[in-house]
Amino acid sequence: MDKEKVEQLKIQMQQWLHEAEEFIHQTPPVQLYTALGVVLFTLFFLFIIRLFKRTASNTIVLTGLSGSGKTYLFYQLRDGSAHQGTVTSMEPNEASFILHSEKDKKGKVKPVHVVDVPGHSRLRPKLDEFLPQAAGIVFVVDSVEFLPNCRAASEYLYEILTKASVVKKKIPVLLLCNKVDKVTAHTTEFIRKQLEKEIDKLRTSRTAVSDADISNEFTLGVPGEAFAFSQCHNRVIVAEASGLTGEISQLEKFIRENVKP
Q: Where is the signal peptide (predicted)?
């Protein structure tokens, strides 16, 4: 921009400033304050709308022990098939898509951002990267191989339910019992009760450690009472699915309850 254009811009700005000063002096104080109040209210309203839009998440996190069938579920949600589901994930599967069951729906359907976090113990820290933006957490349990893995699953679930990022935001958790199509699968009620018993034991031992050594964890349950998922700070729902056969209606219902279409 040359000097002549800069000088013209300065003159124009001075004229605008002079006109604004005259307008302020000529306007009655009541009208001026009213106009100022309307402007401030509008700015505040727009700020609230932008803040709400920014915090409304469409991320669903799939987690659980290795071999529980998370990757099967990921592909069923995305493609309606279990292809590649037999491969154990070593990196998070992450994608935004319209649920396969909703692709034929008319009108605008909101895509879901699904993250399948590897269940290997050394890879679990990756979970913390996604929890702050989660609208819901799906903890997948292998209904067939549940008993040998009950303790490990309980410890992992306990860690999730006591994380500050989960408790403070009250992120809903779906305890999804997978592979229920198998004859040897345990019932959802049996799995729920066993997990509650194991978490009750963990709660007792962890509380004793926390009393002696300051901990930032949130506590679970009610003192003096046996632990139940109904006592959690956030909502915990128990449901079932079969990633192999594609019976995931309860999973899809949970997703749409927390990621509105």
A: none
